[in-house]
Amino acid sequence: MKKYLLFALPFFVVGCSEEVKSVDWWGQHLTEAKQKQAECEKSGSDSQNCKNVKQALLIPPHNDAPVPTFD
């Protein structure tokens, strides 16, 4: 019985992890990114999502930047 438990345990652990979101996704969802950053700072986590959030918040948003014309 213990052998089966030890075999199945890694699958449960992998299934419980959160979905990793890209830097671009966090950059497009700044409200969620700021919440996640606060959560990461509070917990001290160094997960991939925390790294992506930190990088996304360092990149300034250019959503409303004027597009240059070369006339």
TrEMBL record:
Designated gene of the protein: eex
InterPro entries reported in the protein's UniProt record: Eex_IncN-like
Domain of life: Bacteria
Keywords, sorted A to Z: Plasmid
Full protein name: Eex
